[in-house]
Write a structure and sequence with these properties.
Distance between the termini: 91 Å
Strand content: under 5%
Structural class: mainly alpha
Number of strands: 0
Order of helices and strands: HHHH
Shape: elongated
């Protein structure tokens, strides 16, 4: 058992919960990071587990399974973030269109008011 990696995983879990408590992340956003930290904690407590799992999956070099898991995890997180960015782009586009319409209406009202003021004089 490697106490250094156990300590890192525990600190990471605590850090995630502190961020959730400060409302910097939503619970949904941080679930994946909690799972990653728990996975790290399990591997730190049971380091031979990766050897057993890799032999079950017929992977000759156990550390390559860790890299595969990390890559899949990061690709999934990247996909989620890309999806969020696309939703935000759509919202920004809609807000920009609404703003343009409102600016046009305000300009129209100003012109209408100016012509009314000139007609009154």
């Amino acid at each position: 058992m490697n106490y250094f990696f156990i300590a890192i995983a525990v600190i990471f879990i605590i850090y995630i919960f502190v961020i959730i408590k400060k409302k910097e992340f939503t619970v949904e956003e941080s679930i994946f990071w909690v799972f990653g930290a728990i996975f790290t904690l399990i591997l730190a407590i049971f380091p031979k587990l990766i050897d057993k799992v890799s032999s079950l999956l017929h992977i000759a070099y156990p550390p390559s399974l860790l890299f595969l898991i990390a890559i899949i995890f990061l690709l999934f997180v990247n996909f989620r973030e890309t999806k969020k960015i696309e939703k935000q782009k759509e919202k920004i586009m809609e807000l920009a269109q609404r703003l343009s319409i409102l600016e046009y209406e305000v300009d129209s009202l100003k012109k209408e008011k100016n012509t009314d003021d000139k007609n009154k004089k």
